[in-house]
Design goal:
The structure is a homodimer.
Chain A (H helix, E strand, L loop, with lengths): L1 E9 L9 H12 L2 H9 L5 E8 L2 E8 L2 H11 L6 E3 L7 E12 L1 H9 L6 E10 L1 E3 L2 E3 L4 H17 L6 H9 L1 E15 L2 E14 L3 H17 L12 E5 L8
Helix pairs in contact in A: 4-7, 5-6, 5-7
């Protein structure tokens, strides 16, 4: 099972503060039992993601947990009745009062059903709402690139559900060959992690799939998974958070 | 010699109208003597570009002429005292009163001096202010890509000044290897030409050159040339107009 917990807080910072993600990760790890935090620190593919979304005077602190054994630990912290606020001592605004909690769940069964449905749409909107980046041969790649996006999602999927990080290259090639970015609006960003700045991008792309229904279903499943798992690097430190949206025929801008 | 003529007109359309470029081309060709218009129609690499820039209630109709023999013909039309307005019968606003004309000139000598200067900066801002696109193996490519940008400019340069469209692949590879997009903000567009829509992009990129001074000078020259010649496809129909700006050390956002 995968779980997404959104803590909606009042935000008086009045501007986007990219550092909130890193500070929030620090705060969360500090709340968890030592042995859990240590295990998370040491795991190469993190079984959770963090992101912060600021809009309309609210800051949403979003945690997704991708593994069952971690869900209870995170629930104990974030869903505890005793938790009224998040305290980020290093950020400009120190205290974020929690006004609302939203909980969503995505099960493996939901994902299978996505795959076996007969009418998946073939056009998607993807919003990269936090800074997203890929690492290729040691270099950062900070443009949206379908191959890198799919490869990242396929690898994460296999790590979470199959305990290996193998990527089926034939399937990846097929996806790349049969899908296309049809429109986009993106910009580069520099995401601050400790003392360095990682080049990334934010923005939206629209993707069209002109493969058969099975491929469209697979893509749908992958993107749905991605809205929990994130895409690219440093998803546990606030980067690579995506939202996806099916675009049905007749939708405006569809 | 290359010449740029900007006709600044009042614009009451209140929104960006991508069709103005194509209409303006039609109008201009109609004003030129028949044999000149026919020769332009038939030339594969057009020795002129057209672009329209709308901002702050003004529309700028911009023509660059890249070949000496065409300059006089275009001057006769656009710099004639009798010309008070541009009439675009197919557009929403039919009549554009000319409030101001701006003329700029770039000579081969200016370009050589750019090349032989000793202190070219190594960072540039490039604005693609009209829809820009490339054609690669019959497919449109509508992301900013340094190789495609340089290749287009080198080819245009050789067509204009050397009468061949050869591109020095070693030099191109060197430029691509020694320069990098360091930040960007771009979005896709669909540029209307007659009944089709060509996928392109607009926006800005910043490019850094970490090659030696000679390479930096060459890049500087190429971009300066590009601000007259345009980049990519359909530059005679309103696409691919760029402006470049040297970014000196210490500049804000530099």
């Amino acid at each position: 099972m995968m779980k997404k917990i959104i803590l909606r807080c009042e935000d008086s910072t009045n501007k986007r503060d990219n550092k909130l993600g890193v500070y929030f990760q620090g705060w969360l790890l500090h709340q968890l039992p030592n042995e859990v935090a240590t295990a998370l620190h040491e795991s190469i593919i993190k079984p959770y993601t963090i992101s912060v979304k600021q809009k309309n005077g609210m800051a949403e602190f979003i945690v997704t947990v991708l593994k069952d054994d971690l869900i209870q630990e995170v629930d104990n912290v974030l869903l505890s009745d005793g938790l009224n606020a998040i305290y980020l001592t290093s950020s400009k605004q120190k205290e974020f009062m929690i006004k609302e909690r939203v909980v969503k769940v995505l099960t493996e069964k939901d994902l299978s059903q996505t795959f076996y449905q007969v009418d998946a749409v073939k056009k998607y909107g993807l919003e990269f709402y936090t800074s997203t980046s890929f690492k290729v041969d040691g270099e950062y790649h900070f443009f949206p690139d379908l191959r890198l996006i799919y490869q990242s999602l396929m690898r994460k999927y296999n790590v979470i559900f199959e305990n290996n990080n193998h990527v089926d290259q034939d399937l990846l090639n097929e996806l790349v060959a049969k899908t296309k970015i049809v429109s986009y609006r993106v910009q580069s960003t520099y995401y601050p992690i400790h003392k360095s700045f990682i080049p990334g991008f934010t923005g939206t792309i629209k993707v069209s799939c002109f493969g058969n229904q099975t491929l469209a279903n697979y893509l749908n499943m992958l993107l749905r998974f991605g809205s929990y798992a994130g895409v690219g690097i440093k998803t546990s430190m606030g980067m690579g958070a995506i939202e996806y949206q099916e675009i049905k025929k007749g939708d405006r801008h569809g």
